[in-house]
Amino acid sequence: MPKVLIIHGPNLNLLGKRDPSKYGTVTMEQIDGRLRALAGELGVGIEIFQSNHEGAIIDFLQKDSSREADGVVVNPGALIRYAYCFRQALIDLGKPVVEVHMSDIATTGVNRSVNILDDVRIGQVTGLKEASYYEGLKEIVAHIRAKTCDT
């Protein structure tokens, strides 16, 4: 069974309490529950991790169990603007990555022109609130299955 890592970056533990116009009202725990159900429907295993600290996310990516994953869905939050160590950890992992954001990152935040994952990820889903995660999981699973069929 393929395995996908789901990574929630900084501040995503506050989902449901943060600006609902950008992020909706669902909590991270509710999103995780739906991701587990969707993973079951898609026939994949998932491992979910959240941290407000770049180093903790890097440590998670470097674990042996993470290295066994077939792909990654990540909501890096503001880490996409400056977290080059995080970027390198994803490169070193060597797995396909789909980047997701609940808001439309092209229209919010500072330094909108920089995304350190532009040349690392195979796909990006933004602006769909919690559905960004679900579409991201579907996208990475489709990629993993297509790659499996090619070999």
Could you explain the architecture of this structure?
The chain has one domain (3-150): Dehydroquinase, class II (Rossmann fold, 3-Layer(aba) Sandwich), CATH 3.40.50.9100. The protein has 6 helices and 5 strands, in the order E-H-H-E-H-H-E-H-E-E-H. It has helices at 20-23, 28-42, 54-62, 64-67, 84-93, 131-150; strands at 3-8, 45-50, 71-75, 97-101, 123-126. It has a 5-stranded parallel sheet, covered by helices on one side. The longest helix is centred in the last third of the chain and has 20 residues, at 131-150.
Spell out the blueprint of helices and strands.
Elements: E1 3-8, H1 20-23, H2 28-42, E2 45-50, H3 54-62, H4 64-67, E3 71-75, H5 84-93, E4 97-101, E5 123-126, H6 131-150
The structural domain count equals: 1
Span of the ends, CA to CA: 16 Å
Highest CATH level, the class: Alpha Beta
Report low-confidence residues grouped into runs of 5 or more: none
Mean pLDDT over the residues = 93
Rg, Cα atoms, Å: 14 Å
CATH superfamily: Dehydroquinase, class II
Strand content: 15-25%
| Number of E-type strands | 5
Strand order of the largest sheet: 2-1-3-4-5
- Give the CATH architecture: 3-Layer(aba) Sandwich
Kindly state the percentage of residues in helix: 40-55%
- The DSSP helix count reads 6
Shape call: globular
Reported for the largest beta sheet, the result is:
5 strands, parallel
Instruction: Give the structural class.
Output: alpha/beta
CATH topology: Rossmann fold
- Helix and strand string, N-terminal first? EHHEHHEHEEH
